[in-house]
Amino acid sequence: MNATNDNLREDFKDPEIAEGYAESFLDSYIATQIKVLREQNKLSQAQLAEMIGTKQGAISRIEDVNYSKWNVTTLKKLARAFRLCLKVSFETYGTLIDEVENFSRQGLERSPRESDPILYPAEQPTMVIHHGSLFDNAAFLHAGPGTGNNATGQLHLHLFGIQHSHFDANTLYHNYPKPPSAPSAARNALGSW
After folding, report:
1. How many C-beta atoms surround the C-beta of residue 37 within 10 A?
2. What value does the mean pLDDT take over residues 68-93?
3. What is the CATH code for 3-104+178-192?
4. Euclidean distance between the first and the last CA atom of the chain, given in angstroms as a whole number
5. What is the pLDDT of residues 104-142, one digit of tens each?
6. What pTM value is reported for the model?
7. C-alpha Rg value of the chain to the nearest Å
8. Where do the domains of the chain lie?
């Protein structure tokens, strides 16, 4: 864990600081994600406004990190325009630390329904792995679609005798740049993406 996370962990023990930071970050997060999704879909503010039945000025307002009067009805319309679903949930303050750490353009982009990797998984190429002593008593393992819920894990178990069911977060995020930790990061980042 880095120093920023440690500082946030301590700061969030104070209810006033935690509540203020959470509200400010939420406003920044929503505004920034709306802008990122609009740009990801190559839409102008006017085009998006037309899609949800409003004016360009309304889109400009909700993309402002200082705006906090958005409502769920508008967010649902935006979700439909982006071909996504809206998720609203109550979370612990501790989860905010990860949200801040992973705040980036890539972290805010989403695949629309028609290219959702869960709904439409890419076809895995069939592979045959030969192992043994120079093909002596070779065993063949076919890994491809339909080999179970965890084909990669099964392959790893078969080849190495151990199965990894998770990735180390440090390995996964090692090469990703760490975003600034303050809600003002959204304000600064909008112009730099």
Report:
1. 21
2. 96
3. 1.10.260.40
4. 26
5. 999 999 999 999 999 999 865 544 444 443 334 433 333
6. 0.63
7. 22
8. 3-104+178-192, 127-170
Between residues 89 and 167, the one the model is more confident about? 89
Helix (H, G, I), strand (E, B) or coil at 103: coil
Contacts of 34-39 with C-beta under 8 Å, sequence gap 24+, read 34/59, 34/62, 34/63, 34/78, 35/63, 35/190, 36/105, 36/108, 36/109, 36/193, 37/78, 37/82, 37/84, 37/108, 37/109, 37/110, 38/63, 38/82, 39/193
Which one, of 167, 177, 35, lies nearest residue 101 by Cα? 177
Task: Give me the residue label for tokens 């109550």.
Answer: 90
- Amino acid at position 179, single letter: P
Q: Write down the pLDDT at residue 122.
A: 83
Backbone angles phi, psi at 177, to 5 degrees: -65, 145
77-90: average pLDDT:
97
Sign of CA dihedral 9, 11, 15, 18: negative
* Contact by Cβ (8 Å): 189, 177: no
- List, in order, residues 6 or more apart from 73 with CB less than 8 Å away: none
Q: Is the pLDDT of residue 32 over 80?
A: yes
